[in-house]
Amino acid sequence: MSASTIHSAEDARRLAKRRLPWMVFDYIDGAAGRETGAARNRAALDAITLRPRILRDVSQRSLATQIFGAEADRPFGIAPMGMCNLAAPGADLMLARLAARYRVPHGVSTVASTALEVIQETAEGYAWFQLYFSGDGAGTFKLAERARNAGYETLVLTVDVPEVGRRPRELRHGFKMPFRIGPRQFFDFAMHPRWSMSALLKGKPTMANFDMEGYSFDRTESRARATWDTLARLRDLWPGNLVVKGVLDVEDARMLAASGVDAIQVSSHGARQLDAAPAPIQALSEIRSALGPDYPVFYDSGIQSGEDILKALTVGADFIFVGRILQFAIAAAGTSGLEQLWDALSEELSIAMAQTGQVKLTGTNANP
């Protein structure tokens, strides 16, 4: 498939749906329950308008920003996503190279399909490690120490999955990690030979960060034992930037800011965990108001375009993270598809800035 046919995130999704096995597509695309949470956030994003301004010299625009004091060429980076190599062999490293080129964070999932050390080296230091608390936490802290030893400077603790959400689309296909291939999955793969042959040649994706002696990862294992004491232990362990991801409540946000966390990330996990969760773009506005203008607040969930990015920035985010649409672009056309969609997001953002009279990414110019 030609990357030249990708003009939007929806194009990437449409092409990925055609190429990927049904179980893989629905794993990437699916949300919890009846998927009303995803629809709710989409509606809330669509309800935000941007205020056009005229007769301003916007001929020289910059998409650059700073994050934790470092220069970034874009105000958006790569959200942590598990098992990215399901989209295409080598997807993790495609994302890492993109992060290095644009000097933006690449969130590396606990359940990445490439070892965290390899991704950090390929990303040239721009990788952030995303951590799940799991079981009794012993393996979790070992993994944090491993990331620290690998040179990661930012740790992202994801806190919105005390139990893994039920995603019916995924369950109907019998999706498991690691893969278990039965008759249904075999038929699915046979109907998508291009993906299946490339996966066969490269080997099936695995959870690459679980080669430590005595530590395995069960995706369905309860993560419900994490507490504020767990966070305090992690803060003591981690010398660099500590971000807590999955925040939707104002009081939680205040407590996190007071606990020594360096930034929070407003997120509903792409509506993959709780169907009845509020629209995170609305929570973003409330949390920004509660924390004031100076505390670092990041955002992910439901971003589909450069205009969405500008909306989230103007509502209150300091930096945006983009997720599954990047996997769709990779599934559609590999590295060239990823670059094509990244360029489209950048161009959409730049044009929206011009339309709203902005040359730099500062100030608020939205009408919620």
TrEMBL record:
InterPro entries: Aldolase_TIM, Alpha-hydoxy_acid_DH_FMN, FMN-dep_DH, FMN_HAD. CDD domains: alpha_hydroxyacid_oxid_FMN. Belongs to the FMN-dependent alpha-hydroxy acid dehydrogenase family. This is (S)-mandelate dehydrogenase. Keywords: Flavoprotein, FMN, Oxidoreductase. It holds the Pfam family FMN_dh. Its EC number is 1.1.99.31. FMN binds at P80, M81, G82, S109, Q130, T158, K245, S267, G323, R324. Residues 1-368 form the FMN hydroxy acid dehydrogenase domain. PROSITE patterns: FMN_HYDROXY_ACID_DH_2. Glyoxylate binds at Y27, Y132, R167, H269, R272. GO terms for molecular function: (S)-mandelate dehydrogenase activity; FMN binding. The active site is at H269 (proton acceptor).
